Amino acid sequence: MGNPVQRHYGLDWLRIGAFAILILYHVGMVFVPWDFHAKLPGAWWVAVPMMASNPWRLSLLFVVSGYASRALLKRNATAGKFARQRSLRLLVPLAFGVALVVPPQPWVELTSKYGYAHGFAHFYVHDYFRFGAVGPIVLPTWNHLWFVGYLWCYSMALALLVGALPAAVRRGVQRGFDRVARGPALLVVPLGWMVLVNFILFPGGRETHALAGDWVAHFSYLPAFLFGFGMAAAPATLADLRRWWPASAGIALLAYAVVAGIELRWPGGTMPRPFGTIFSVARAVEGWTAVAALIGFADRHWNRDHRWRPMLTEAVFPFYIIHQTAIVLGAWWLMGAGLPAWADFLLLVAATIASCLAFYFGGRAVPWLRPLIGLRRHASRRTHVDPRPAIV
């Protein structure tokens, strides 16, 4: 499989930061007009700062996961071992999450929005595992854990490709990536692909996170995952991202300014033509140029270790598993309290962080719980330098 892929601490820090932003983003979902599992009185303008990360945070996570997958493939020696390792690390916490972590979310949604009259215990025993619809919600559900399911599917597709293609073909594909993913093409080709997906292949399409038929998501996130996989063996690509990150960041900021300006002028998706199209194009430009800028910035400035990194890297997956349930339950408890929106927000953030910390520190201390919350069965003895790649 060639030389080992070096751990990229900058990508670790990006992953940690992206999941921290995700927690704040999902707290924000409680207050904006967009659909969410639990809602509190808020303001439409909250959507404007949320759009600063909305177009790029998930693509960035799939790129980082693709990079780490290359390292895991090399460490596992064969595609079959890689597939087994990924299945254990992803499917076990996914099943645990669907069975025990996610259920309060649809119960709160059904109770607060659709008049569901039963308590949680009745819901869990009689309705959650019916494998059918209760009101508008099909149960059981994975809600925010769709990311884990998609990542497992992409990992299995990668394992099949690596196992099926001869080594000479794989080397040829990598050489092709090395030639294309350089210079201006690093921005032009991905942006052209996003325009193709959103305006030609699936005009007006939206992500569903239902796996089957979610073509907009698959045509967006699978290429991002494969880009990260190719980038892990392409130092020239990383060098160009590092060299051009200020230009990429400038383009991303300009694109966000367009997005924010149109949203401020026509809030709630009511923008007339041609501003709706301009809005969508600007989001696409922001989405990829922000990813390119962040990777380049992290490679130049953050590719160094810190004594907190191993713990923060390990904590990301358990935080991700529990955070949305904590947010939805917190919002449910705050309903009817009559607090101002700023107080609701601060209480939700504090309660969510406390829940994440309790879930992580409580789970990591119990050996049989560790795999259920996304941790390795045995804690690493190396607290300052962890050579193993981090991947959700």
UniProtKB/TrEMBL annotation:
The chain crosses the membrane at residues 12-32, 44-67, 88-107, 145-169, 181-203, 215-237, 244-262, 274-297, 317-335, 341-361. InterPro entries: Acyl_transf_3_dom (IPR002656), Glucan_succinyl_AcylTrfase (IPR050623). Residues 9-360 form the Acyltransferase domain. The keyword Membrane applies. Pfam families: Acyl_transf_3. It comes from the Bacteria. Keywords: Acyltransferase, Membrane, Transferase, Transmembrane, Transmembrane helix. One of its GO terms (molecular function) is acyltransferase activity. This is Acyltransferase family protein. It comes from Sphingomonas corticis. The lineage of its organism: Bacteria, Pseudomonadati, Pseudomonadota, Alphaproteobacteria, Sphingomonadales.
